[in-house]
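Ticket 4471: requesting a sanity check on a complex prediction with alpha-L-sorbopyranose. Repro inputs:
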Amino acid sequence: VSSRREPQPLRVGIVGHGFMGRAHALGWSRARQVANLPLEPYVAVLCGRDTEAVAASAERLGVPATCGDWRELIQRDDIDLIDICTPGSTHGEIAVAALEAGKHTLCEKPLANNMAEAKAMASAAAAAAEAGVASMVGFNYRLVPALALARSLVSDGRLGAIRHVRASYLQDWLVDPSFPLTWRLQAGEAGSGALGDLGSHLVDLAQYLTGKPIISVLGLTETFVRERPLPGRSVGLAATASDGAITGQVSVDDAAAFVARFEGGAIGTFEASRMATGNKNALHVELNGERGSVVFDLERLNELQVYELDATGGGFARVLATEPSHPFLNLWWPPGHVLGWEHTFVHEMVSLVEAIAAGRQPEPSFADGLAVQAILQAVGESSNSGGWASTLVGV
Ligand code: SOE
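Returned structure tokens:
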């Protein structure tokens, strides 16, 4: 007979079972397996509109039950946490309803598709926090050990005041003009394109790493391929179809670029693209401070290049962020046994569960998500007007 007290369960319902639903389901099960958590999370229900597809996903992921309607999921009293992995257009409605029903809520990034939704979500989160209900937005790159290490080098003052932020997130999956018009290319569902999907990560990371908000931006966005085949049809086949349109208009950006001013004087350059031929998922962040610099490259996720004027003299040193003392490495393997992209979701779930158990609000918060949204909006405004836009407008 063991005298150890069993942790209470934390029953999770995931809404959405595409790419992110899978990543989160794996994150939840690994979190329970690797961390000695004060609450024991498990995914109890997977929710999606396509009953057959959601059942198949649930079986593969080992989730015991499914549900076809998120509203029902939120009403269930055997669910403690709602994990939102759907397109951006549904985030606001689901998150506000979940928080009002007293469910802890994790929401994929970007928080919302527009400022009105993001504001409603941030105020629902603030009200729910009063009642001890947690909310978190899934900017998973904060949970990369090397980037969390970069954050602590900045906050410990090792790099001095930051002067430059240089950040890019480059993919190339839209280079082929026959790639179909999926939801990610439609403003009604996705809000924006590369700007919201990839630029949101850059903006959140820049503000997290420097600890300073972006106060104004000058940006531009571009859509290089404006018309694409509707999903499920090749142009050749669809040309013979009898039911009308075979292509549709792309209503989001393929690429965005902007420069930014930070509070405290730093300047930043940002680029997000789905048209950067040859780049698959290339996230690059560099900070230059008065006493040192850090460089991170997602394709070398375990490494942080560090330059400290006093310590490294003539060049950058490669730090392998796999020591037990490095962020999140207490969960994993001996030094040098490297981690990958999916570990960011495990760390996200571990941080969230620990915050809930301790009665703290986790980070990144919905307020952080709203701050990112304000900057995305300002980049859009700047691209339309051709002038600088303040990120504080409308917050
Ligand atoms: C697709 O562009 C995508 O999966 C993003 O939605 C993720 O946030 C990013 O991490 C990788 O690319």
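Notes from triage: Confidence is low (pLDDT under 50) at residues 234-242. Leaving this open until the requester confirms.
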